[in-house]
Design brief:
mainly beta, 4-stranded antiparallel β-sheet, disordered N terminus
Amino acid sequence: MLSSGLIAPALLDKPAVAPGELWTRPLFGYATLLKAGDKLLILKTDGVLVLAAANVDRYEELARTRIADATTRALPALAAGRLYVRDTRTLTCLDVGAEVP
């Protein structure tokens, strides 16, 4: 049985390509990562969506925004430039493939 008060803060880790190659983001929290081209879409369980560069050398956050008010534990889906996210109350579809002028 898990209690939210007993879960330790999570690290965001880059998989090691070779021994000793690793970057981390302490206290990042729990999240699901999706790679889309040269970017990472990182959906945190607290409803925050983070856009980061898919950079093996370092963590490079490009943007972040809250997209859900409730806990997001379901795996997000990315299809045709749309990101589908479900929290405990709603299913949301975001157009993440559009270029901003």
